[in-house]
Amino acid sequence: MEPGRGFLLEPEHGTEDPGAVPLKICSLLPSATEIVFTLGLSDELVGVTHECDFPPAAGRLPVVTRSTLRHGTRDSRNIHHHISAALHTGSSVYVLDQELLERLDPDLILTQELCDVCAVSYELVEQAVQRLKGTRRVLSLEPTSLPGILATIEQVGAVAGVPDRAATLVAELRRRIAAVAEKAAKATRRPRVFVMEWLDPPFTAGHWVPEMVRLAGGLDTLGREGQPSSPITWSRIVEYDPEVMVLIPCGFTLEQTVEEAAKAHFPEEWGRLTANRGARVYAVNGSAYFNRPGPRIVDGLEILAEILHPGLFPPRWQGTAWQQLA
Questions:
Q1: Would strands 244-247 and 203-204 be described as parallel, antiparallel, or unpaired?
Q2: Other residues' Cβ atoms within 10 Å of the Cβ of residue 21
Q3: Which of 28, 133, 177, 249 has the fewest CB atoms within 10 Å around its CB?
Q4: Alpha-carbon torsion 295, 296, 297, 299, what sign?
Q5: Could you say which residues of the chain have pLDDT below 50?
Q6: Which CATH number among 3.40.30.10, 3.40.50.1820, 3.30.200.20, 3.40.50.1980 corresponds to the domain 185-324?
Q7: How far apart are CA 70 and CA 105, in angstroms?
Q8: Which fold has domain 7-161?
Q9: Could you tell me the pTM of the whole model?
């Protein structure tokens, strides 16, 4: 399956006219919810996840999922242990409300198979769809790059019957991406960057984030473009000795990231890193601008560019989307 293309699943008990326009949409992804709203389809959205917090209007819709994470579990290490234990035993990190899904009776369900930690697993979605009466359309969005993210917007637009709106949105996002890349190319040097997708234990950033670093005028040889984030040892980080560190723990807001960075169990070598000695450690709102493959990912690229090259990019996002820690 090509990145960003996704696929369609149709239940065994029927087939659907591929040209039919869905009347009711259920989004099982925060990024998909943002895409639906941005395409002007909010009236067709009947259900969302417990993590769909943008735009604010999404919070007024029926919620069809919940997390199995114990209430009050906030710090990186405990969250990591809970998720690791759940995945090790084959349990899901999320629960899908089958009864509510049946009452909402959606024509189109937007989901993903990229990461069981980020959203309801595709297996659970498939089981739920098979229990629904009638025919359904399931679109699984699988982007691993910026072009892949733009392709998913076009996919949703096509399936929802608004391809022109999607094309207009994607053209504007491409323009903004190109503008950042063109300006960043004028930088006299490219700093050595490490983007942390998890703090304790440390993880590299993956998929589209290393690509964002490159386009924003930085070098990140610890992350791999198009590949998942992965655990990394502190000895490897020390050896790499980043000049800039950007903390984007998955699912954390800016405030949560600042709080977590203050109490994380960093080793003694942390204070000797070039990024720390040069006061170039930054916390950002990863949940809004880096972790979700939706329209705001381009905001994330612009944020990263102003962090890496403040002389080229005025600090428009400072204070609201990112904060200097050291």
A1: unpaired
A2: 12
A3: 133
A4: positive
A5: 1-18, 20, 71-73, 80-91
A6: 3.40.50.1980
A7: 30
A8: Rossmann fold (3.40.50)
A9: 0.86
